[in-house]
UniProtKB/TrEMBL annotation:
Keywords: Cell membrane, Membrane, Menaquinone biosynthesis, Transferase, Transmembrane, Transmembrane helix. InterPro entries: MenA, UbiA_prenyltransferase, UbiA_sf, UBIAD1. It comes from Amycolatopsis coloradensis. The chain crosses the membrane at residues 41-58, 88-107, 113-130, 137-161, 167-188, 217-244. The gene is menA. It catalyses: an all-trans-polyprenyl diphosphate + 1,4-dihydroxy-2-naphthoate + H(+) = a 2-demethylmenaquinol + CO2 + diphosphate. Pathway: Quinol/quinone metabolism; menaquinone biosynthesis; menaquinol from 1,4-dihydroxy-2-naphthoate: step 1/2. It is a multi-pass membrane protein. This is 1,4-dihydroxy-2-naphthoate octaprenyltransferase. It is found in: Cell membrane; Membrane. GO terms for cellular component: plasma membrane. The lineage of its organism: Bacteria, Bacillati, Actinomycetota, Actinomycetes, Pseudonocardiales. It comes from the Bacteria. Belongs to the MenA family. Type 1 subfamily.
Length: 289
């Protein structure tokens, strides 16, 4: 039976910035539209956190029963390592996704925007079928697109809309930036896993682009948010604060650009996530100012 520490590690806490950053950036854009609401912000954050924990457990379960995680390099996989039974991990995934659904329902009820239930349902289905089902889209190279849409566009714009009841070009800029960061985290992860994914038959975008192509994609993705910072400076010069997070990515750029492999790429996931969270916080402050 898995220990509490193993369950926490299985939830992949290093991915939590992917859930927090879109809400923080969305809050900043909502403040700029004079639409900030503490209750709705907190609910949006809880929905996002529950969703990503559910995604992580669902991936652990689905990859584990397929045998994809048997030779995986990186954080503990509960099913793949044998630390927990597949049924227990499946239950954990369903509980987290169910909690996300309930909290999302409360948020929709408070905002009165009932049509957002459809978007919430798509997010939950997207979380499950990333690696679940007979033909998981994450196994066919669509994972990066899904992350950009769900943790970038939907996460940021949804947070803005349930508070302000409208969107702005600033909100779209933040959504693109956070989506690029979040996709960069997944790209670094899949770059690390290219050898084992090819062996297990998992055809991620990284396996399709190849090692060099995936490294180029990562470098482009992490450059996008800083281009957005410069563009947002036309709205408020304070947006240039986002550029202060660029040094956090120096080691990642060196590792990815320098051809590092396997475990040597793990810090790139952490640093990209931290840069994303830092960028979101500083940009939100800038927009609030």
């Amino acid at each position: 039976m898995a220990t509490a520490g193993e369950w926490i590690e299985g939830a992949r806490p290093r991915t939590l910035p992917n859930a927090v950053a879109p809400v923080v950036a969305g809050v900043g854009a909502a403040v700029a539209l004079d639409g900030f609401s503490w209750p709705r912000s907190v609910l949006a954050l809880l929905v996002s956190l529950a969703l990503i924990v559910g995604v992580n457990y669902a991936n652990d379960y689905s990859d584990g029963i397929r045998g994809t995680d048997e030779n995986r390099v990186g954080p503990l996989r509960l099913v793949g390592s044998g630390a927990a039974k597949p049924k227990a991990v499946l239950v954990a995934a369903l509980v987290a996704l169910g909690l996300a659904g309930i909290l999302g329902l409360v948020l929709v009820a408070i905002s009165g925007l009932w049509w957002l239930l459809a978007m919430g349902a798509v997010c939950i289905l997207g979380a499950w079928f990333y690696t679940g089902g007979k033909k998981p889209y994450g196994y066919y190279g669509f994972g990066e697109i899904a992350v950009f849409v769900f943790f970038g566009l939907a996460g940021v714009l949804g947070t803005v809309y349930v508070q302000a009841g409208q969107l702005s070009w600033t909100a779209f800029g933040c959504a693109v930036a956070v989506g690029a960061f979040s996709t960069g985290v997944l790209t670094a992860n899949n770059l690390r896993d290219i050898p084992t994914d090819i062996e297990s038959g998992k055809r991620t975008l990284a396996t399709r682009l190849g090692d060099k192509g995936t490294r180029r994609l990562y470098l482009v993705l992490i450059a996008v948010p800083y281009v957005v910072s410069v563009l947002l400076a036309f709205v408020t010069p304070w947006a240039l604060l986002g550029l202060l997070t660029a040094p956090l990515l120096l080691k990642s750029v060196k590792a990815v650009g320098g051809g590092e492999q396997g475990r040597a790429l793990i810090p790139a996931l952490r640093d990209t996530g931290l840069a994303m969270l830092g960028w979101a916080i500083l940009t939100a402050v800038a927009l609030a100012l």
